[in-house]
Amino acid sequence: MAKKSNSLQDLGGFVFSTNDSFSFDAEESSIETLPPNQQKLEAHLDKKNRAGKVATIIKGFEGSDEDLKNLAKQLKNFCGVGGSVKDGEILIQGNFRDKIMTLLVKEGYKIKRVGG
After folding, report:
1. Which secondary structure element, helix H or strand E, spans residue 76, and what is its range?
2. Whether the Cβ atoms of residue 56 and residue 96 lie closer than 8 Å to each other
3. Third-level CATH fold of 33-113
4. Domain-wise residue ranges, the chain
5. What is the per-residue pLDDT across 47-106, written as a single tens digit (0 to 9) for each?
6. Cβ(77)–Cβ(111) under 8 Å?
């Protein structure tokens, strides 16, 4: 038996409006991805809430989710490890901060090392 879901996103994000002058725009505004030389990324090293395991986190990407996922895939392939994209951040398993920073600088990104 299929599980019922009652979340607002399952309904398309729009349920009902009492505003007479409300107009529903089905199209979402697409976010323009900044070119690499205008991106200001931060490379963090984190091991909180990860059972003592280290992860490299890249923050500050401005652009579409699709471009963020493509950049994450490129970084994961380059490092040969797993990772994910969550809340606009790229999470790479392991301490690959320096390796990732050199790749991103070659790609034209502005990246800053944050933390120890």
Report:
1. helix 65-79
2. yes
3. Translation Initiation Factor Eif1 (3.30.780)
4. 33-113
5. 888 888 999 999 999 999 999 999 999 999 999 999 999 999 999 999 999 999 999 999
6. no
